[in-house]
Amino acid sequence: MSMKTKAAILVTSFAVLVFVVIGSMGGVHASNNDGAYRQLEVYSEVLSRVQSEYVEEPNIPKVTDGALHGLLESLDSNSSYLTPDDYKAFKDHKSQGKGDIGAVVSKRFGYADVVAVLPDSPAEKAGIEQTDIFEKIEGKSTRDMSLQEIRNALSGAPGTSLNAEVVHGRQPAEPEKISITRAIVPIPAVADKMMEADIGYVKAEALTKGKAQDISAKIKALEKAGAKKILLDLRNCAEGDESEGIAVANLFLNHGTITYLQGQKFPRQTFNADPAKAITNLPVALLVNRGTSGAAEIVASAILENARGDVVGDKTFGDGSVAKTFELPDGGALILSIAKYYSPSGKAIQDAAVTPNVLVADQNDNFVPDDDSDGAPQDQAQPQNTVDDQLNKAVEVLKSRSS
Hints:
Layout: H1 3-23, H2 30-53, H3 60-73, E1 80-82, H4 84-95, E2 103-108, E3 111-117, H5 122-125, E4 133-137, E5 140-141, H6 147-154, E6 161-167, E7 176-181, E8 191-195, E9 199-203, H7 211-224, E10 229-233, H8 242-252, E11 257-262, E12 269-272, E13 284-288, H9 295-305, E14 309-313, E15 321-327, E16 333-342, H10 349-352, E17 358-359, H11 389-399
Parallel strand pairs: 9-10, 10-13, 13-14, 14-17
Antiparallel strand pairs: 1-16, 2-3, 3-4, 4-5, 4-6, 6-7, 8-9, 11-12, 11-16, 15-16
Helix pairs in contact: 1-2, 1-3, 7-8, 8-9
């Protein structure tokens, strides 16, 4: 294949991508389209220089894939380019029930960032914690993988092993090589208990389908048992459906906007509280942290911005969008975010996250490396701080609220 032919293939690949993106934005002004076409000339010039001036003959497919990955990920972490093989794996993943490791991941700073880990999951048993980074999965840098490719790699048949190199967030050092055995990971049941001062405590690890109903049942039972205030713990709650988050928020709100969804071609869709679905008017406090993501952030922003209660803890992760898949002629695909969820006041949750009105840093932030350890983990026999400052503060806040 001649150099000119190879260059033409690269330019065509970019052209296909640009046309797909433009096609998905049919309502954009012509001037914006003209800008995209002019940018294509820049791509052509860059590729031509790579072909003629680079120190050695470039690997055309690798260069193309890398460029497309970078282009999509520059939009947001949820947008991805999938090669034909990646897209096939993506479709297989959606159509088959598979095991996984029980960790919710996103991409931050180019790598696979652990948002939250489910209790008793393979990931937790392997020592994976929130804020850890998967630097490599099966020998491949996650910097070179799309988010969907990463998620595909983490899942697989129960009993199979996942080999990875992990950088532990609280112990800056060389990546640890670990092996995790995939399994069918059940979502923990909603937990509840009665605390001091007649505070009913409810904890949800995820907001998957049916959890709003479970939370509702727990709150009603706690009220019957004498609860005068409700503490809802959504820390490390990163898995679930946004519709379930809307339903949970509605349990506490009898009026007002819960959230709205909007995109360039996606007409605004507003979700207002239905008075018939509200179940309690007791004072409420909500616990969140950096592992609170997606559906749980909708609950937090709705309660906070409708002045329904206090949100206590650390700033949340920041995620919440609707994606659409566009198939490409070569068998690959694009996954593009086409709309974002917004807080009642108009902040894009994915961009701004949710900042509590009562800030209490995550316990992990209290980790201070030993200056003499050269970054090595501290003595495991050293006593750990088991005081839950965030929980204690939420209880304190609720005690100060009149029933």
